[in-house]
Amino acid sequence: MKGQELPPVTIRRHPERGHYDAETIHAIIDAAPYCHVAVVRDGMPLVLPTFHVRIASDIFIHGAVATGFFQELAEGSPVAVAVTLLDGWVLARSWFNHSANYRSVVVFGRPREVVDTNEKQRVFEAFAHKVVPGRWQDARQPSERELRTTRMFAIPIDHAAAKVRSGPPADDADDLGRNTWAGVVPTKLVLGEPVPDPGQSPSIPFPAYLTEWLKRAQSES
Amino acid sequence: MKGQELPPVTIRRHPERGHYDAETIHAIIDAAPYCHVAVVRDGMPLVLPTFHVRIASDIFIHGAVATGFFQELAEGSPVAVAVTLLDGWVLARSWFNHSANYRSVVVFGRPREVVDTNEKQRVFEAFAHKVVPGRWQDARQPSERELRTTRMFAIPIDHAAAKVRSGPPADDADDLGRNTWAGVVPTKLVLGEPVPDPGQSPSIPFPAYLTEWLKRAQSES
Question: What is the DSSP string of chain A?
Fold first, then answer.
């Protein structure tokens, strides 16, 4: 399995929804808060959600050293990574033509373990910046011990495809006369009202970078 | 692989977050709009997003007959299904203790293909009811041909585990004195403003069940 060629990434069903350019693929990976990583263990499929960040043409994932899931990754076994964003429900006039608008990416690759603590540190900084810009500077940064007890893997994005659906429903000509409302109801992951840690001193102010982050998330939705 | 025993579902990392009761597992599966299904193809992992609905203790997924992905399912190869809901960003005082609140389920199982068109019809009705209550009655229901050209699989949920994190950050005692705001910023998938199909007659009213659906989604967020 280790030496085996990675599977093809050609989109066979709805080929017109397929994209293979790095710009489209990277943008979807960046927009998604988390991904799903699949490996083969003892011949059986295993899939788990995990957070990720992209730097250049690598996806980085990380976790505690104890994460059982990382055994296969450390051995260099191939992984499949799926990144999925649901953008809306597509309500057609027939049930059969109901669909969803979405952006998705699947990457096949062989993970490389990141062992250098400086590289780990840089990836964490990028991850913090992706999720909450400004947080890296405000929080206590990782200690040597913390970096050592975190395992990290880079998966190259050079064997990947995106699949994207957007726009209105595609109904059969025969159904267009129906008296059924048709259209798209967009969906979006939004941020809610922050809940301060109950153990926190009330004198600690809510930081400006968080206000900015919430405001930007609001305006994008 | 076909006769092989399914892998254990015990949560090893953060065992206190593990749940094995059907009530918890079913509620998470029902709350998620889509899942990720992993299979092994030629010894390599493959994972794809797809929509699902639960009825009793089965997850049902479906797709066009041409879906290449269904080859392994039809052969009865084991699948791993992951269902993931991101509930919030957990902002701790140290970067290391940053986390997320989430509800996730992983199911291992051998799919059974649904071939009876009456069963398919019932599953589609349940799926419509899950996504947009009232839509099934309003849209044109599937024809015999449409049911035949849709492939459907049931995956039993009897070999599954849930993992759930909720609540405030868990900081190290040494970090509690820091002047860093700590807490949770909730996240939620919400519905946006409906976009009517441009080809639609303006005389078609926006149906009451959709207004109801949007209102309920709003009040839950």
Answer: --SSPPPP----SSGGGEE--HHHHHHHHHH-SEEEEEEEETTEEEEEEEE-EEETTEEEEEEETT-TTHHHHHTT--EEEEEEEEEEEEE-SBSTT-EEEEEEEEEEE--EEE--HHHHHHHHHHHHHHHSTTHHHHSBPPPHHHHHTEEEEEEE-SSEEEEEE-SS----GGGTTSS---EEEEEEEEE---EE-TTS-TTSPPPHHHHHHHHHHHHH-
